[in-house]
Amino acid sequence: MTKYGWRTIDIVIASIIAVTFGVIFWAWNIVWGATETAFAFFPPAQTLLYGVWLIPAVLAGLIIRKPGAALFTETVAAVISALLGAKWGATVIPQGLVQGLGAELAFALLFYRSWKLPAALLAGLLTGVSAAVFDFFAWNAATDLWDYRIPYALLTIVSSTIVAGVGSWALTRALAPTGVLDRFAAGRDRALV
Questions:
Q1: Topology of 8-184 in CATH?
Q2: Could you tell me the pTM of the whole model?
Q3: At what angle do helices 55-64 and 167-175 cross, to 10 degrees?
Q4: Among 29, 35, 89, 119, which residue has the least CB neighbours within 10 Å?
Q5: So where does this one cross the membrane (predicted)?
Q6: Residue 190 clears pLDDT 70, i.e. is over it
Q7: Do residues 125 and 51 touch, judged by C-beta distance below 8 A?
């Protein structure tokens, strides 16, 4: 098996992360709906909550450290969310695919060799960019460019960089000492996480 070949444990853990976050996505959809009125003063600000939907792409990339981990995990989480009845329907599946591509691109740009905080920030940023681009055309095309779409996109990227980027890095760092990541490089080189 090559360095980048997937082991059974990689598939199992990526699937566990995806299913777990698919359920979290379902719950987060409810939170999103419940908080719409709280952001009525400036609706694009609600995207500060967006980063939670992008965590699995960055988290799986940081843990599994192999090509396709970010893309697979974010897409499967989106499928689970759709199956659980996401209010946005099956559109969340291609949305998850596009979001996963953003994080995957970040890890590919680093040749799948860097797993420190800057890599997590870049993955969070690029998955936020991919999410913003998808939403720009799929969900927000009828909204005003400067009053809604541009601030929505910028705040999505900020949320993704902080919540998905820093959050995934912190979660990986918190999990490593517990031993649950010992079968992964993320668990073995704890000093580098």
A1: Arp2/3 complex 21 kDa subunit ARPC3 (1.10.1760)
A2: 0.93
A3: 40
A4: 89
A5: 12-35, 47-64, 71-90, 119-138, 150-171
A6: no
A7: no
